Amino acid sequence: MYIQIKDICFSYRNSKEKTVDKFCLDIDQGEIISILGESGSGKSTVLRLLSGLETPSSGSIMINGKVMTDDRTFVLPEKRGIGMVFQDYALFPHMTVADNISFGLKGYARAKKKQRVDEVLELVNMQKFKKRYPHELSGGQQQRIALARALAPEPSLLLLDEPFSNLDADLQIKIREELKQIIKKTGTTSIFVTHDREDSRAIADRIITMRDGAAHDWDSICTVRGEFEPLSVE
Question: Lower Cβ count inside 10 Å, N or C end of the chain?
Fold first, then answer.
């Protein structure tokens, strides 16, 4: 199993309730998983725990056989090899598209960095925009650049937090299919969280429904609240 999340628990400071409660999930390499849930269900917190932005109180996370966190180990966020696409895209406004993408390519030689920037710009069909600034791009274009930046270092795992929330309905439908094609082309294992069931159905290989900080996978031995919904073919 490429990713193993077992019995993860987490509570925010001054909260009496667990935000994430014995969350368990196994993911195959190259699989796209959607965590579907309402606001406050704990789905975005799961991404923060995976990325290392928060530390669980108990449980373990393994990626490709390497422990990211357990009761003895905690790998720093920058050492995890995880790419993230944030809800607001988080592009640097004072940097060009090319500079935004190359920012995360630490340790690359200059020629290799330029080559990789060109590769991911071609992947998201944005080669013509490499010298533009974020404010010169539409919402859909900014999202593609944010995706290119996250994919540039060839992450072991891609996390997307409500990736369509800032797009209008028509663009949202168009971008869904583009996003799935791009991720599948790279073969990157991905998890995206959303409150929109149609987003989940359009992109995910599996949908995990999250409630009260927990999810249930039919193949899991964990006893938790929630439900698992395999993606139906209609």
Answer: C
Confidence of residue 39 (pLDDT cuts 50, 70, 90): confident
- Residue 233 DSSP code: P
Assign 95 to helix, strand or coil.
Answer: coil
Pairing verdict, β 157-161 and 190-194: parallel
Q: Say how far apart CA 25 and CA 224 lie, in whole Å.
A: 11
Which residue has better confidence, 47 or 39?
A: 47
3-10 and 214-215 as β-strands: parallel, antiparallel, unpaired?
unpaired
Sheet holding 3-10, edge to edge: 20-27, 3-10, 58-63, 66-69
- Does the pLDDT of residue 213 top 70, yes or no? no
Give the Cα separation of 215 and 143 in Å (integer).
28
Q: Per residue in 76-108, is it b (16+ CB within 10 Å) or e — as a string?
A: eeeebebbbbeeebebeeeebbbebbbeebeeb
Distance from C-alpha of 32 to C-alpha of 176, rounded to nearest angstrom: 13
pLDDT tens-digit readout, 87-97: 888 899 999 99
Task: Return d(Cα 22, Cα 7) in angstroms, integer.
Answer: 4
Tell the burial category of 210 from Cβ atoms under 10 Å away from its Cβ (0-12, 13-18, 19+).
buried
